[in-house]
Amino acid sequence: MSSDSVDSESSDEYFSLAPSEPKKRIANLCRNIPYTKILSAATYAAEANIYKPSIIADMDLSKTQNLLLAMVHSLAEGDRKSCLLLVDACSEMERLRSSHYKVWLLEDFTFPRYDIQNAMGLLTELVTDPNLCLEFPTYLMDIMSSLAKKYEISSVQPIHSGISSKKDSNDLPIELEENVSNNSLRGIFELEGERVDLSEMTKHGDSLLHLAARAGSSAFIEALAALKPDLEIVNSRNATPLEEAVRYNRATSIKALLKAGAKLEKPFFRGETYLHIAAAGGHDKALEALLEGVMDINKKNQFGETPLVKAVKAGNDRCIVLLLEKGANSSALPGVRLKDGDSIVHSISRLGNIEILKLLKDRKIPADIKDQNGLTPLHVACNPSVVRLLLGMGVDVDTEDYRSRTPLMVAARNIKANVVNLLLLKGANLNIKDIEGRTALHYAAEGGCTESVTNLLDAGARLDDQDNKGVTPAFVAAVNNKNGVLQLLVESGADLALKDSNGDGIMHRVARGGHVEVVKTLLSVGTSVNMKGKDHWTPLHHASDGGHPAVVKILLAAGAEVDVRDQYQWTALHWAALGGHAAVVTILLENLADLEAETDDGCTPLILASSEGKLDLVKLLLDHGANLAAKTVDGKTALMVASGSGHETVEHFLLDYRAGALDDIH
Question: Is pLDDT above 50 for 264?
């Protein structure tokens, strides 16, 4: 094997795998490992590959394969540092648990035998080095052991030394715990004949069986079982080894413990069983292993809950499927409510698990059940496949919730255009109104989905239908800043001159919301910029009161009257001053707004700003020449209003300002 560094030509050859990001792909394979290490491993593998790829790129290696090859290569080279890093990286690769990678390594490559012999020798040194405490996963050990077997390497010493019989019996439990933790079977077998109490607990309150159960070490459990330990022993958490295996989802441990004679029928707190624990925790592998034993799958706890009910409440889909397939009684499911108030059918419909939904359909579970808001599973269906199944389970396409909302309305609001389209094809009534008088088109406009709006219009939805407050779909789109939908509705002929029940038009509502692009769209189609609505407010009043300088600029540029009065003689400047909107006040003043305009009770913008304690506005207005001596109808000046309202900062400023003005006069 050659360990020479890879030349530039080889590097370029490998980099051709991803021309747009050559080094990034290699450098990111795992942290702290130079890409050259991965590259050299790929070169080594290319030479050993029985299919003889002409270049490294022909191998098309995945990240997982690259890491595995790099680990083997580093072991063969004797590169301890890189090997430790790669073992750590491989330990985080769950995909390496798949037998596919072992088969691939054994069948696709022919490595030099002395390389594998060197690799196994270094591996033995690393895992037995007490200073390293290397945790070598069992699936990686299995891969390396398979390589050793293929190349008939038998001279490598067993990994980890056993326990000396000369040790004091008091030291045996401690050393045995280390053997279990270090994945060493040899120490277990050497215990036979030794006087060691297997019921003795470790410093953490566990027996050796508990340790092995949590680790998923079936071989250790079988070895310990040969020494006849108490299989029902409990640890400091009052858990048996089998319970620990269940809670850690260790199927192999469960099978080994049951084979050794562990009891399945142990009762737990509140009458629960091992099945209840696995189902509630979502431990699907443990549940599957338990179901191979003889257990009452429908046993109820003290609350009347079966394992299936626990799985449903926890929302564990895989556990639900396993239990249903094994014959769990599903008759109680319709009444089971999850934490969010959903039924099982709601939850599955929302998540889109077709497999479980079909099982529920086969068991004739009703699908028209309603949640606390009256929503059926059809209302929350996430995709067309779920919709079809639910309709096949008998749910009415126009079923209404407690606010008279149909599935079509909910899908339109939630931007599910494919669901909207299917419901329309299935005959959904698009003109039904909810308790607020809104149709599906209102909801589609709110969601902002142009596809849903188009589908509804093509199906015949009424364009200018007004709800109970006189709001049309165009209003809804504009107020919710859905400019694309608004443009579509305008192109379809929406009437923009309509007013709501308050007397406001669409421009009033949009100006108040500060939606710049929507304002531009409305102006582009000729919407009146000086239309008066409730209390004779114009769009400029709304934009100024809302504090939207960009909209104020657009309205003024479009011809809005700067000093137009409302019902109580307030101008836009009055409302901006009262709200403390300095940017808006500045724009209005730049457009020659009347600084001394009076409301019907004689308030000027300065008096209003003072009454609200808006010091920055007071300064701004005075800088533009506002009259400090102006009075309201009842004879109050800005200073008097500020004082009477408790705004001491403004009061003191106005006193100083007045004193300065008097000094200037004298």
Answer: yes
